[in-house]
Automatic annotation (TrEMBL):
It is found in: Nucleus. Its main location: nucleus. The keyword Oxidoreductase does not apply. InterPro entries: Saf4/Yju2 (IPR007590), Yju2 (IPR043701). Part of the spliceosome which catalyzes two sequential transesterification reactions, first the excision of the non-coding intron from pre-mRNA and then the ligation of the coding exons to form the mature mRNA. Plays a role in stabilizing the structure of the spliceosome catalytic core and docking of the branch helix into the active site, producing 5'-exon and lariat intron-3'-intermediates. The keyword Metal-binding applies. One of its GO terms (biological process) is generation of catalytic spliceosome for first transesterification step. This is Splicing factor YJU2.
Length: 301
């Protein structure tokens, strides 16, 4: 009770203020206190003790000691943690790894294999700060390029969505117009509305029949064209077969002889006309000479 409202305290002559221990918080601010401090944490990864083989899963709670290290990574403070195995009380230490945004197991335990971990990050452990900065800048540039491409793809998707919305809006307008027309007809009575619906059904049926008739007409024309082409091919083949027969070849040769005889006869007639009246071959004479030539050719065969 005497200490409640005391106005002054007694300090002996040999009092030394520097001998008084300061609190841990103030000493840590000044940088003169101990670098180890108690900390309650959970294991950031699963590990296996190298002393007894105890499996320590991720997320198990420990009363650890936290040590502040002198080294830094890009002005980021690095900490080391000390824990003990729950089975053999062996000391296990691990530290923060701000370079890889992870933790690094130092001694006393071995980190278990994790499938989801990216093993390609291990090749960056020997990089210098300049190499790391260059790599990060390059990755950032690639990410920006990917974002630009994604923006173009997003713009294309928006255009497709807008077209789809326009089609939907047109369909809705058509439905609304149809409903409004039906409602106007319903104002005149149910029979008028049914008549309107029936007219629309008949119109759709008529349109379908017209399309079907057009398709049939196109098929018919195509079939006729193919049939006509086949008939023409058959006629050509028949004519070629007739022309290739031996008697007809003889007739053709006789006809060619006729064409050779007529000019000679015409020449003799013209020679005789110099002494007497002129004579001109008519069609009957030419036909007579042709029949005689063809008959002689048949007799010869």
């Amino acid at each position: 009770m005497a200490e409640r409202k005391v106005l002054s305290k007694y300090y002996p002559p040999d009092f030394d203020p520097s001998a008084i221990e300061r609190s841990s918080k103030r000493s840590r601010k000044d940088g003169n206190g101990p670098k180890l401090s108690a900390s309650r944490l959970m294991t950031p990864f699963s590990m296996k003790c190298t002393h007894c083989g105890e499996y320590i899963p991720k997320g198990r709670k420990f009363n650890a000691r936290k040590e502040t290290l002198e080294e830094r990574y890009l002005s980021v403070q690095i900490f080391r943690f000390y824990i003990r195995c729950t089975r053999c009380s062996g000391e296990i230490t691990f530290r923060t790894d701000p370079k890889n945004n992870d933790y690094q197991c130092e001694r006393g335990a071995k980190r278990n294999y994790e499938v989801w971990r990216n093993n390609t990050d291990e090749k960056y452990n020997d990089e210098t700060e300049e190499q790391t900065l260059d790599r990060l800048e390059k990755q950032h540039g690639e990410k920006e390029e990917q974002m630009e491409r994604d923006k173009m793809a997003e713009l294309e998707d928006k255009m497709l969505d807008s077209k789809r919305e326009m089609k939907v809006a047109d369909a809705l307008d058509e439905i609304r117009t149809r409903n409004a027309r039906i409602e106007r007809k319903e104002a005149g009575g149910a029979e008028a509305a049914l008549a309107t619906v029936q007219d629309e059904i008949d119109e759709e049926t008529r349109r379908a029949e017209e399309e079907e008739a057009a398709d049939r007409e196109a098929l018919r024309k195509e079939f006729q064209a193919k049939k006509r082409a086949a008939q023409d091919d058959a006629r050509v083949a028949a004519i070629e077969a007739i022309l290739n027969q031996p008697p007809l070849r003889t007739c053709l040769s006789a006809a060619s002889d006729l064409l050779l005889v007529i000019p000679s006869v015409s020449a003799s007639r013209s020679h005789a006309s110099s002494k007497g009246p002129s004579h001109v071959f008519n069609t009957e004479e030419i036909f007579f000479y042709g029949k005689r030539s063809l008959g002689m050719a048949r007799i010869g065969n």
